[in-house]
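Late entry, evening session. Most of the bench is empty. Finally got around to the prediction I had been postponing all week. Sequence below, unchanged from the version circulated by S.P.
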Amino acid sequence: MSDIPYGFEKPIAKRLRDTVRGSGLSIGPDDGIPEQRRVAICLTPSGGIPARSGTTPGTATVTLCMIDGTNGIVTTSVTETAYNIGGTSVAGSIYTPLEREYIGGEWIVVDDKPSSCTEAPITDIRVNGNTLQYKQCGSWVTWHTGTDCP
């Protein structure tokens, strides 16, 4: 049974939580967000998470992480099964968000990265000497090299 009261307006949920706190029971955070809508950070396994095949999502065991104000992203000892509903695999050993699927409550990988850098957006353009370059997937790519006019 969940510790978070569902379906109540935030002021009512707060009063319920305050009442439960007085009883010594464990309760969730006091932010009014249902547990099914929570987001987490995970570290994917070294082999990544396979793509969905038909209606069968890819799965892998991921390690949950948290953000520490001093140490940045910190891995925990908690692991969960994550489902990849995308048509492409998720890379291994990367940090990526997870979201709770609303009806079943399973962890879904939120991977909005393109399947290859050629599909990624161009994020910057520059002139570097006699070359025109664009930045894609964090790297500068030359698309035209100029020559001196005669």
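Two things to note before I forget:
The chain has three domains: 1-32, 38-113, 116-150.
The radius of gyration is 22 Å.
Will write this up properly tomorrow.
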